[in-house]
Amino acid sequence: MGRYVIRRLLQMIPVFFGATLLIFLMVNVMGDPIAGLCGDKACDPATAAQLKKEFGLDKPVWQQYLTYMGNVFTGDFGTAFNGQKVTELMSAAFPVTIRLTIVAILFEIVIGISLGVVTGLRRGRPVDTVVLMLTLIVIAIPVFVTGLLLQLLLGVEWGVIRPTVSPEAPFNELLIPGLVLASVSLAYVTRLTRTSIAENSRADYVRTAVAKGLPRRRVITKHLLRNSLIPVVTFIGTDVGALMGGAIVTERIFNIHGVGYQLYQGILRQSTQTVVGFVTVLVLVFLVANLIVDLLYAVLDPRIRYA
Amino acid sequence: MPEPYDDGAIAGTGAGGAMDLATSEATTLEQQPSAASGGRAPGGPLGTGPSEKPRSLWSDAWRDLRRNPVFIISGLVILFLVVISLWPSLIADGNPLQCDLAKAQEGSQPGHPFGYNGQGCDVYTRTVYGARTSVTVGVCTTVGVALFGSFVGGLAGFFGGGWDALLSRVTDIFFGIPVVLGGLVFLSVVTSATVWPVIGFMILLGWPQIARIARGSVITAKQNDYVQAARALGASNSRMLLRHIAPNAVAPVIVVATIALGTYIALEATLSYLGVGLKPPTVSWGIDISAASQYIRNAPHMLLWPAGALAITVLAFIMLGDAVRDALDPKLR
Amino acid sequence: MLLEVRDLHVEFKTRDGVAKAVNGVNYSVDAGETLAVLGESGSGKSVTAQAVMGILDMPPGRIAGGEILFQGKDLLGLKEDERRKIRGSEMAMIFQDALSSLNPVLSVGDQLSEMFTVHRGMSRKDGKAKAVELMDRVRIPAAKERVGQYPHQFSGGMRQRIMIAMAMALEPSLIIADEPTTALDVTVQAQVMDLLAELQRELNMGLILITHDLGVVADVADKIAVMYAGRIVEQAPVHEIYKKPAHPYTKGLLESIPRLDQKGQELYAIKGLPPNLMHIPPGCAFNPRCPMAQDVCRTDVPPLFDVAARRQSACFFWKETLDG
């Protein structure tokens, strides 16, 4: 187990540096990192040269990257376009997005798994067919369309929710945005749970449990669910990172001032430091989520734990 | 081969935006060279009659697909989409770029069943012409992703060892970048108004998904006894890869690529909605939905038609892939 | 009589039609007796056993007719909950592949103690103590230390012992063992078989031993039922059948066992394949493969003829077979 964790950690390192380097190159080489620093006008050549020197942009790219990473590891993410520290933006934005992600994950767990179990146990019945069709439709409609439609119907036409979320973004205002953010993953969780339940319900050990004379309820909860939920739990774990990265669309629709909003602003105003900083943290979240999933897998499945 | 009757409901999971899932699921669709005898009958095999001919994986799947209404319907929808993207003028005689501001936001009227958009362009014509963009983006991305992904994944799986470790890490790096975020960063610096930067970007971040599938199925195929036998008989690497492994590793790639095609179309629309995907004058459902979202209160028709077309297109590809997967996966029969 | 199966019919609905897996099986087992059910895969031997246990997948399976009398009660007339209470406590089953038949994510202790907590209402602690006791009884070394381990941490033979312990847990009066040693190494096979036979004697249980391995049968069984295409074709006390089979199929099976005294000769094999259960040949199901088949075999289904006391054969030419 210990060796397994260490191996996974070591594998993470090149991936982290590779991914951040890729983002760094995209922004710094393809874009113009100082364009956002002179306000709305273009910088005059003298100022540009001075700024470049100030930010070390006259050095080779790999040196810039190393300097940047060195700063990041000491907690310095640089400054955003309006002179604010990027870390300040982060401490305002991340709590909001984390709340939104929690709401979304709860939806996935509660609705997704329940629907998956129900359909997996009733394969071929009408309820199964209907839920399966619904999940396909949810998957096929892009999140921004779902979001806009729900905003139109619930927020504007029926007035059930506020069409946009207030800057504090309390949990109750994040319910519908969270559902929108979760929607596609929710459909996946339903289908994955269903497939897993269906496959496992034919497994030999389930037959053994029935032959032991266990009540149906116990066969399902203790034997079938425990095995079937392993892939589902790992999917939901991996999804944490994906949801935080994908929140950008939902946050734009409902005007939520989270990570996606800040990133979007950063891109609009060409604030290199903001963009690279936020993406770096998100990549890190994504990788850590994956690591936790691997560990969770080992906890849930003794065959991996003792391998 | 008597097998337990299992109804034809769509089993398995679709795939889409969250690319991991398509990957994790398709790994269950590994090679079954003896697919015809794959299903487990309750209480042990019931015996095979000498009168039955052995069926191949593909002919068996085709037999299933022909009887599957989901396959037929999604196939027809896709055929229709392809035809109107090649010849949009067959069903729309207007010009999608010819607009009359005086008619902006007007609703349905004779000759213009979908009404006009915010610039006074005919929504019907634009919706029809939008299909071309979406299908082009979807098909080109899928072809690029499938070729590059299979190449890298196939090499990693076939040679193993150091190659595998290196290529797998590279795959992980590209997997580590959230797609929409990467799109924002990468495409925000691109000024071209063509579809190619978007396609290029989606291939750049999309290939690892296929690479993982291809790697997994090549490894499985490589372990098959008949491949080991061919190796023992001294078959060359290229002959092994082309004659023995590739034909057996290709099914999972095709399934995942078909499903992914739908998700690429959705991704293009999402990027266009965020303002970094396609740019006018390209006619795209994503751009139109984005533009219409500002007028959603007054003129929802401007949003609903392209959004509906988009959803049906994505749905058709996902359902097609889903049906093909079910047909190829004997375990779920 | 402990268990009596009368004229049992089981069908499976498949995509291509109805497969008739069991077509009128009769057999019986008494307390302390061992019945070996012999046959190729697809002969219906496992399906019959699953019908007795009440663990058939229904659908696609369907019991199309017959009776299963257990201690005088017809099991097919019972409600599901009543049958469930009999399973595990009154009759238990041992499966072929212990690795896949044990739950991979629960410790063997949990899986054993579950029998006591569910059926007997014991506390978890008592159940655990019982689990250790059971593991001792099937001679798993260091039972106390290993009770918390998972199935994949045991060897194949040990896993099968755990399956046996699980079946014995509540001292049932009937055990059905479905190919209990097929997945094991030859050396381990004998040990496991001996353990099973020993426990059976101790507890005076009825045992149905399903197998396709004639070697296993000779030592432990009292009587043998040979199945073919969902029917019993021959039933006899174990030694008589080895000496003189009364059905050409049994004869073929016996002749296809390699024997040391026939070294150098070509090994006999029954020609052809088992029938497709959706298109069982008319008449005697074995006729296309039978060296003695006559016209009558292709038109009439042979009934079970009484050959001798407690001995039957479903062959029109049983006399000729016996003499040949």
UniProtKB/TrEMBL annotation, chain A:
Main location: membrane
InterPro entries hit by this protein: BPD_transp_1_N (IPR045621), MetI-like (IPR000515), MetI-like_sf (IPR035906)
Membrane topology (UniProt): Multi-pass membrane protein
Residues that span the membrane, as ranges: 12-31, 96-118, 130-154, 174-192, 224-249, 275-300
One Pfam family of this chain: BPD_transp_1_N
Entry keyword set: Cell membrane, Membrane, Transmembrane, Transmembrane helix, Transport
Keyword match Iron: no
Residue span, ABC transmembrane type-1 domain: 94-297
The keyword Heme belongs to this UniProt entry's keyword annotation: no
Protein localization: Cell membrane
Family according to the record: Belongs to the binding-protein-dependent transport system permease family.
Protein name according to UniProt: ABC transporter permease
Provenance organism: Streptomyces violascens
TrEMBL record, chain B:
Mitochondrion recorded as keyword: no
CDD domains tied to this protein: TM_PBP2
Pfam entry (one): OppC_N
Disordered: annotated segments: 1-55
Organismal lineage: Bacteria, Bacillati, Actinomycetota, Actinomycetes, Kitasatosporales
UniProt keywords, alphabetically: Cell membrane, Membrane, Transmembrane, Transmembrane helix, Transport
Protein name: Peptide ABC transporter permease
InterPro entries assigned to the protein according to its UniProt record, in alphabetical order: BP-dependent_transpt_permease, MetI-like, MetI-like_sf, OppC_N
Membrane topology: Multi-pass membrane protein
From TrEMBL, chain C:
PANTHER family in the cross-refs: DIPEPTIDE TRANSPORT ATP-BINDING PROTEIN DPPD, OLIGOPEPTIDE TRANSPORT ATP-BINDING PROTEIN APPD
Alphabetically ordered keywords of this record: ATP-binding, Cell membrane, Membrane, Nucleotide-binding, Transport
Family of the protein in this entry: Belongs to the ABC transporter superfamily.
InterPro entries on file: AAA+_ATPase, ABC_Ni/Peptide_Import, ABC_transporter-like_ATP-bd, ABC_transporter-like_CS, Oligopep_ABC_C, P-loop_NTPase
Residues that span the membrane, as ranges: none
Membrane topology: Peripheral membrane protein
Keyword Amino-acid biosynthesis attributed: no
Cell compartments where the protein resides: Cell membrane
ABC transporter domain boundaries: 5-254
Designated name of the protein: ABC transporter ATP-binding protein
Entry-linked Pfam families: ABC_tran (PF00005), oligo_HPY (PF08352)
Gene Ontology molecular function terms on file: ATP binding
